[in-house]
Amino acid sequence: xxxxxxxxxxxxxxxxxxxxxxxxxxxxxxxxxxxxxxxxxxxxxxxxxxxxxxxxxxxxxxxxxxxxxxxxxxxxxxxxxxxxxxxxxxxxxxxxxxxxxxxxxxxxxxxxxxxxxxxxxxxxxxxxxxxxxxxxxxxxxxxxxxxxxxxxxxxxxxxxxxxxxxxxxxxxxxxxxxxxxxxxxxxxxxxxxxx
Length: 195
Hints:
One of its GO terms (molecular function) is phosphotransferase activity, phosphate group as acceptor. One of its GO terms (biological process) is pyrimidine nucleotide biosynthetic process. It comes from Trichuris trichiura. The protein is of the alpha/beta class. It has a single domain (15-193), classed as 3-Layer(aba) Sandwich (Rossmann fold), CATH 3.40.50.300. It is 55% helix and 15% strand. It contains 9 helices and 5 strands, in the order H-E-H-E-H-H-H-E-H-E-H-H-E-H. It starts with a helix and ends with a helix.
């Protein structure tokens, strides 16, 4: 590799996507990983909820509607929020992005907007049965407006129709590391994927 190519590779943000159904434990495991490996955790959902609650946000009503309906927010908004968060982070080894990309439009938008700025290291796929995910969401008590059975069923349908094909796309690129997220030994399995 030439010196110029090495310098260019060093200037890219390292990214790990964390994907899986709602309630599989993406946020919980990401918070544990950052303590061990120096990555910064960026949750697309948390960034969207924060933007939704920001007074005067031009995206507030649109984000609110998508969250209530269990549908996917337009990629331009999500990519803008992710890019802003990355630009504000200093000293991070890389970024763990959970809950994104969630559909083909997200992936295409990400590639269009961010592909020249990032190095996607791998995709951590947290596979978990729907019944366990629903039970976890209903029992987590976070007070989220989308943690009710009707919204959860819509979110799981959206995941199955839109996100699973994205995971299969990444599998065809041989960058998916799949773990059983229903397991009690989940943290040790997740840590092994980063070694």
